[in-house]
Amino acid sequence: MLGDGPPRVSGHLAYRAMLPQASLPGPLRSQQVTAWLGPKLHAVQYPVRGGEWLNLVVIVQGPAPHDLQNWDHQANGADLQAATQLLCAPLCRLIDAVTASASPARPAWRLWPLCDRPPISGARQQAQGRVALLGDAAHPMRPYLAQGAGMAIEDAAALGSVLAQQRDPAFDVPALLQRYALNRWQRNAQVQARSERNGQLFHAQGPLRWGRDAGMKLLGEKVMDLPWLYGYGA
Q1: CATH code of the domain made up of 8-115
Q2: Residues sharing a CB contact under 8 Å with residue 152, sequence separation 6 or more, in sequence order
Q3: Which CATH code fits 123-203?
Q4: Confidence of residue 186 (pLDDT cuts 50, 70, 90)
């Protein structure tokens, strides 16, 4: 619809694993959300399924697979171990344990090459005529604010609200869809841009890395206090 060509390859590769915590050594089991930040990579782990399972995502920078149409690939755990061998010991032990848990019937890791598009630049990219786009169809974003699904839900709520304002069967659909797009595109663009910026901070090196670490040490939990994002519509 937009004629904007193929998506933008980010150069970031997400290795993802989810497994029962009972399959891990006791010291590696966790009921907390934990994030590690390092040069050109970061990792996030968190409990799921009532804490019985652990989800681990390790994102490293590297070349994407040639087949980008198949966005979910079986991953080689040895490649991830090689890319993360200089990380802190607890994370290395966790990655090693996940890799060791693999079996022929159940590979340990899946590889997701991350692609996106530049931040949306106008309402026309979200609605044209009698067609409206929402979520990743309109504004795919990197996962560094964990807001891809959140923005799709906000889009759906905004679209439903606009359509509910006019119950006449002869209502002007293009005008209502344009109103929806005008209400949404700037916020979506802001979240896209901030997500990309977060990825740069997570993977920072040199002085930027030092500044990031100092800011996190000084501000603590306030680093995650984003009223413009989490207080939207309150």
Answers
A1: 3.30.9.30
A2: 134, 135, 136
A3: 3.50.50.60
A4: very high
